[in-house]
Amino acid sequence: QSFEQEEFNMRPTQTFCLLFLAMCGRVAAFPVVELVDAAGRLQPPALGCATCAPLALQIRSTTAALRDAQLCEFFSFCDGDQGSLLTYDFNLPQIRAQDRCTRISFHKETCLRAIATGLQKYHPFLLSVETSILSSNDQVTWVRSSAQRLAELLIHQLNVEFGISDVGESALEVSVFDSVSQTDWNRQVNVHVTLRDFTRFMEKSSRALRFMSSVTNL
Question: 3-state SS string over the chain?
Fold first, then answer.
């Protein structure tokens, strides 16, 4: 009887030990994964730019709508035909082959740097458009502020993933417009060229950002 009593008293301890071992086994079944570089240093996880692609697309759509409205209201080109305005070119930023933003040659760091730099260069031109279009001023203000926000998001992404905190300030100045006599016609031409070229820039940028968000480990 004393033996059976001793065995009964040991059962809670044995039960606890078995439960503890079982819990340890379950914890061990989940591997601990850490991101390390070639030198064995722990790396912070890359922050995604989840809002970048939809924001870029919305900027592009709004800018295209502003472009079409201005073409119709001021130049009476309501069918989308830009006519003689196609001859005007101020060499504003565009996404080009060397920026590696296409599916075939996509390179994340190079492409994000090109988009962020271009957005910064467009800022003074969009500010000039904002003072020239009164009927759609709120939309232009939204485009300018949203483009600035997108540039900040991309620069943050470049800093987190590649240690790049400065993509260079704008080398372009709105003085390119000052070389043309500022008649109402010329002001509206400046507005059109800015909206037209920025729409093209955002079309390729949004396409690249959508592609970036659809793939991993680039």
Answer: CHHHHHHHHHHHHHHHHHHHHHHHHHHHCCCCCCCECCCCCECCCCCCCCCHHHHHHHHHHHHHHHHHHHHHHHHCCCCCCCHHHHHCCCCCCCCCHHHCCCCCCCCHHHHHHHHHHHHHHHHHHHHHHHHHCCCCHHHHHHHHHHHHHHHHHHHHHHHHHHCCCCCCCCCCCCHHHHCCCCCHHHHHHHHHHHHHHHHHHHHHHHHHHHHHHHCCCC
- pTM, whole model, 2 decimals? 0.74
Q: Residue 174 corresponds to which tokens in the numbers above?
A: 């709105």
Q: Which residue has the tokens 């001021």?
A: 74
Cβ–Cβ under 8 Å, residues 176 and 190: no
* pLDDT (average), residues 76-97: 88
* Model confidence pLDDT, tens digit, residues 43-86: 444 446 889 999 999 999 999 999 999 999 999 888 877 778 88
- The token duo for 167 is 């993509």
CA 45 to chain centre: 18
